[in-house]
Amino acid sequence: MASRAGQPGPCAPYSARPPLRFANGRFWRSLSKEKKSGSRWICLGKVSGVHGIKGTLKISAAVAPEIFLSVGEVEIGGARYEVESATRKKRQVLLRLKGVDSRNQAELLIGEEVRGDRGRFPPLPEGEYYWFQLLGLPVKHAVEETYLGELTDIIPTPAHDVYVVRKDGREVLLPAVEEVIVEVNLEEGVIKVLPPAGLLETYAD
């Protein structure tokens, strides 16, 4: 089944579509480094400002508010804070943290990344995946078992996502539809595809 991955955000594209689509941006590359390092604490967004006088943070978020609530605890500037509330306001998340009770305290965190434990992300319906689960996976031909490259980017479009597969400096764009993305096996760490006839030849040197 084709995966439905989500919109990218200020640090990396973690949210899924639907129902957790939120924000956009092009900072997914930081995710690949975190994933390869094995880090469970990944970037959820960045503190962009302060809302009100009681310490509420404005977050340029890579994920929906539900993710902040699910992880329950975030790391900012090397310190960890319990999440009290997270709500959406336009294209940002308003985040309340235990122990951050004044505007002065909140202002000290502006510019810092907000990180959370990806192991506490809520589960998704069958056939949907977080981008951090897919980026960096090898892509193989489902029939020939040949290695086609590494999934390096996911481009959202109104019709469907497009997977960018790179090998030896060459990129192949694959539509993320069931007829093409025939298997995503996270246990084995591989994506198997059936490219449309003639597609690979189009991208050949």
Short description:
This protein has 205 residues and is mainly beta.
In words, what does this structure look like?
The protein is mainly beta and 205 residues long. The protein has 2 domains: 29-120, RimM (Elongation Factor Tu (Ef-tu), domain 3, Beta Barrel), CATH 2.40.30.60; 136-203, PRC-barrel domain (SH3 type barrels), CATH 2.30.30. The chain is built from 5 helices and 12 strands. It has helices at residues 29-37, 65-71, 103-107, 131-134, 199-203, and strands spanning 41-51, 56-61, 73-76, 79-89, 92-97, 113-117, 138-141, 147-155, 162-167, 170-175, 181-185, 190-193. It has a 6-stranded antiparallel beta barrel. Strands 10-9-8-7-12-11 form a 6-stranded mixed β-sheet. Strand 9 and strand 10 (170-175) form a beta hairpin. The longest helix is centred in the N-terminal third of the chain and has 9 residues, at 29-37. The protein starts with 28 loop residues before the first helix and ends with a helix. Residues 44-115 form the RimM N-terminal domain. Binds ribosomal protein uS19. Keywords: Chaperone, Cytoplasm, Ribosome biogenesis, rRNA processing. InterPro entries: PRC_barrel-like_sf (IPR011033), PRC_RimM (IPR056792), RimM (IPR011961), RimM_N (IPR002676), RimM_N_sf (IPR036976), Transl_B-barrel_sf (IPR009000). It is found in: Cytoplasm.
